[in-house]
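[recover] target loaded
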C-alpha cells in the first residue's frame, strides 16, 4: 500500500478536507460521498463521519493509499520556504 504524509499547521483537519487537500478526491463533494459510503478507513476502521477530526498520528486509507497526518513542525526543513514569493 502506498503511504503519504499530510502535514498540518493546525491541531486537526477534518477527514473530508484531508482527502481533498491530499488530492485523493477532486472535490469536497467526492470526499463527502466516499466517507459517507464507508469507503474510507480511519486508523484501520471504517469511518462514516466526514467531519472526523484527524490529528497528528492518525491515518486515513482510501483507494489503496494510506495518508498519515503529521504536524508541520516535524516536516523536513520545517515551514521555511513554503509560501515564499518567487523573485
Amino acid at each position: 500500500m502506498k503511504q503519504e504524509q499530510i502535514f498540518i499547521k493546525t491541531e486537526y483537519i477534518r477527514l473530508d478536507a484531508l482527502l481533498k487537500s491530499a488530492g485523493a478526491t477532486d472535490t469536497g463533494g467526492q470526499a463527502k460521498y466516499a466517507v459517507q459510503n464507508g469507503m474510507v478507513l480511519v486508523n484501520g476502521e471504517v469511518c462514516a463521519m466526514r467531519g472526523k477530526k484527524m490529528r497528528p498520528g492518525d491515518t486515513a486509507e482510501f483507494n489503496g493509499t494510506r495518508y498519515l497526518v503529521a504536524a508541520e513542525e516535524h516536516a523536513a526543513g520545517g515551514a521555511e520556504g513554503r509560501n515564499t514569493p518567487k523573485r
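[recover] notes: The chain has one domain: 2-74.
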